[in-house]
Amino acid sequence: DGLLGVSDSYPLGGYYKKYYMLTAAALGTAAAAALALVPLHAVRSWTWIPAVLFFCIHMQMSVIDLLVEGKYAEKMVQKPETKSDCVTFVWLCCTIGMGLGSCIVGPLSDSYGPVCVLYVC
User: DSSP of the chain, one letter per residue?
Assistant: First the structure.
């Protein structure tokens, strides 16, 4: 089952995915905020700090992605006739989100620097 198989075995508050996703989102958001607020001299002295913070951010993305994939896989089993529509909709939303993100992050980081992007997150 793996590490995220825990969510199917041990529901939190009666929900199998909700609170695991909220916990991951809180951890990733806190890590992005900390990354934006950590002074530059601390990053130069303790290089492990940004590594741990980036790990937390990527863990958030991975946990949420896998748990959402599990949920829509359940829905596709319930209604097999909608399988391709569901996958198409998910990838459409991902592509639109990435495009919008690129349109926002590019000009923002060009104008104000890369740390500004972390403040927006």
Answer: --GGGHHHHS-BTTBSSHHHHHHHHHHHHHHHHHHHHS-HHHHHH-THHHHHHHHHHHHHHHHHHHHHHHHHHHHHHH-GGGHHHHHHHHHHHHHHHHHHHHHHHHHHHHHH-HHHHHHH-
